[in-house]
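Researcher: Please translate sequence to structure tokens.
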Amino acid sequence: MTTIEGVCKEVIEKSEWVAIATTGPDGPHVVATWGDYVRALGIANDTVLIPVGMMRKTEQNLARDSRVELLCGTRQVAGAHGPGKGCAIIGRGEMQTVGPHFAAVKAKFPWARAALVVTAEKVEPQL
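Model: Translation complete:
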């Protein structure tokens, strides 16, 4: 596990959206969520919580292979070559429908059917 901190935490805190990539039998699958949703739930050390409304294919993919990658970016953080910085969070994901993570998600997002809990194993700045 790794801690999400520094410039990557700043990027997440200013991102408009976050892409979520998983792998299934047909290859890569990408969905996204709003950055506001991630910020509302907070980032705790190595854990990112995401409210889940649909994401059925993502759920199926994670049941077979828990590897997940989040990608976010913003122009509000300076990059190495101009405005804009990104961050990749690589780790393991799990859909939870009970427990404290799900309760936290459901309290803020009553429409959520699950919580996507991503545990970071590697955090890489982009740009």
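Researcher: Any highlights?
Model: The chain has four helices and seven strands.
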